[in-house]
Structure formats: C-alpha cells, structure tokens
Design brief:
Elements: E1 5-9, E2 14-18, H1 29-44, E3 50-54, E4 58-60, H2 79-96, E5 101-105, E6 108-110, H3 112-118, E7 122-126, E8 130-132, H4 146-154, H5 156-165, E9 169-170, H6 171-177, E10 182-184, H7 189-201, H8 205-217, H9 223-238, H10 241-252
Helix pairs in contact: 1-2, 4-5, 8-9
Length: about 260
C-alpha cells in the first residue's frame, strides 16, 4: 500500500487509516488508489470486518482542492471523471463487501469525506467531530453517494438543509438525527471502534453479510420482492455451520464459536 494509506491486519479483521494528516486526509489520486486497493485486499484475504479511520486531527476533508486550482488548469475540469473513476467505485466496493465496515470519524468529515463515512455500515464519531456537506461552498452537489444517503437517513428537509447551507453537524447532533450510530468521547473512539470491529469479526460472518445486503436492498425493493429475498437468505443462513453452532451454543448455554461460514 502507499504511504497515504496505513493498513494493520488483526487476527481476522483489517484496520485502514487515511494518512495525509497534514492535508486533513483529503483525497489525491494516490490516496484514492491506495484506499481502493486496501479494501480489495481485505476482501480478497477474507477479512471478517473492516475498520476505517483517519490519522491526525481530522477524518477526511474530501477532495484536495489544491489539485483543482483554476489558475493552474487549461480549462474547466471534467469532475464526472473523478466521480466515475474514484468516488463511485469506492462507495460501490464498501457497500458490496461481504463483511461489516465500521467507520471511526476522529475529527472533521467534510465533503466527500463525510459521505465516505455514510457509505460504511456502522459509523462511530468522536464528540469533537463534525460532518459538513461543504459542496455548496464551491458550487458543487453532494457526491460520493451523499445525495442518495442523506435523504434516506435524515429525510428530505434535513438533507436539503445540510446540503444547501453547508452547516456543520456535530457528532452528537448526527447521532440524535440518526445519521450515525453513536458519538463517543474522543479518547474512547478508537478503542471502542476496534472492540466493535473485533466483535463483528468473531460473529456469524455470512449472516452479518446477508443482513447488510438485505437492509441496503430495502431502499429500492417492493415489500413482496423483499420478503422473497428474506426467504432465500434465510435458506442460506440455515444451511451454514454458524447457524448450527449458534443454536447449539444457545441450547448448551455457552458462548458460540463462529467460524464465519
């Protein structure tokens, strides 16, 4: 991996850290490619959970606008290339991973950085963190899935308010509004996030992966189609070794030892 991305492999899960702290972990092309590669490696090596966080005092300030200085460009940039080449594939990959992705937002999460966190499955944030839909300040729309996730998580009124005004949202507000799972004291964030990732990685991985898929599909499924999908998924879960282990452990009044299949 590149120096802009740090990867630490735990026993059965992977911790990935955005590592451009001097730029508040804003994205350049190197960091884009490094993060995608790190997530692919976690998938290909069978990681049973992923934890994503940032180095230094911020999680991610979005795109590095130093690369977009109009005075240094020959003409207007085609931003659709950046979205299609980097941000959209990244969101699709996170959402498609067959394991839970925990995000620990350790400081400001602005623009694409805020929406990158929302693509993850469980978001924890330090109490000092802020979520900022900063796109309107530079004449853009919320990308990285922001215009899709915000109204689904918050409703249209709050989504438009945040996107049109770029007003910062504190971690506590984000928790109260249902944008994230939980806000924590700054000192507790990483220990709790690592504990959660370890717990998820020791769980029934197939069932957790299918749960993730089912909840994501609910946004566009009809009820009838979704009920059929639930039946198909329950069939797969019922045939798994982890289901047998979970039932046996319950009946024998002991902790389960899930193997992830």
């Amino acid at each position: 991996m590149t120096e802009t991305i740090l990867v630490h492999t735990h026993e059965n899960w992977t911790e990935i850290t955005l590592n451009r702290p001097e730029r508040l972990n804003s994205f350049n092309e190197e960091m884009h490619r490094g993060l995608y590669a790190a997530l692919e490696t976690a998938r290909d090596t069978g990681a049973r959970a992923v934890l994503l966080t940032g180095a230094g005092r911020g999680f991610c300030a979005g795109q590095d606008l130093g690369d977009r200085d109009p005075s240094k460009l020959d003409g207007p940039p085609d931003l659709s290339v950046t979205v299609r080449t980097f941000y959209a594939p990244l969101v699709r990959l996170i959402r498609s991973l067959d394991c839970p992705v925990v995000c620990a937002v350790n400081g400001v999460a602005a623009g694409a950085g805020a929406n990158l966190s929302l693509a993850c499955d469980i978001v924890l944030a330090a109490e000092s963190a802020k979520f900022i839909q900063s796109f309107s300040k530079v004449g853009l729309i919320p990308d990285t899935g922001g215009s899709w996730h915000l109204p689904r998580l918050l409703g249209e009124a709050r989504a438009k308010g945040l996107a049109l005004t770029a007003q910062p949202l504190t971690a506590k507000q984000a928790e109260d509004w249902g944008l994230i799972w939980k806000s924590l004291p700054d000192a507790d964030l990483l220990p709790e996030a690592r504990k959660l990732a370890g717990q998820l990685a020791s769980g029934p991985t197939l069932g957790l992966a299918l749960t993730k898929q089912a909840i994501q599909a609910a946004a566009t499924d009809t009820l009838s189609d979704h009920l059929e999908m639930e039946a198909d998924m329950m069939k797969r879960c019922g045939e798994s070794a982890d289901y047998a282990e979970g039932v046996s452990a319950f009946l024998e009044k002991r902790p389960p030892a899930f193997k992830g299949h």
